Please model this.
Amino acid sequence: MVFENSQILILGTMPGKESLMTGEYYASSSNSFWKIIEAIYNNGNKFVNYKEKASCLKKNRISLWDVYGQCDRKGSLDSSISNEVLNDIDAFLSEHSSIKRIVFNGKKAASAYLPKIEYSVLCSTSNSNSRLSFAAKVEEWRKCLKE
Model:
């Protein structure tokens, strides 16, 4: 999900099983990504559909992509990823020069690529990340995205 004039690129590892089936980023209802975006940019109101989610990101100059272009994985856990092939993120950034900062959705995504521009590594929005409460995740993401 890439928008012209985005200033922030959020990089995950690779879409999970539900996302691949639906063609929508963070499609699993157990992933808190869209709930966090609702809390930060939509006054906590639920998005009606994927078009509304995309519109919110576009309005706030945020794009989504993945560090891996392909990989093998059973299920959706990042710990199950193998035989990964990196996307050409440097070329992508050259083509999208408005992007000034990368935000990694979790440590696994960040471990795959070292950006040449400003970046942050945030807690994963995956339901497998139970280290932080939802409120703590929202606050971490809010601080980074609203800088």
In short: DSSP finds six helices and six strands in the chain.
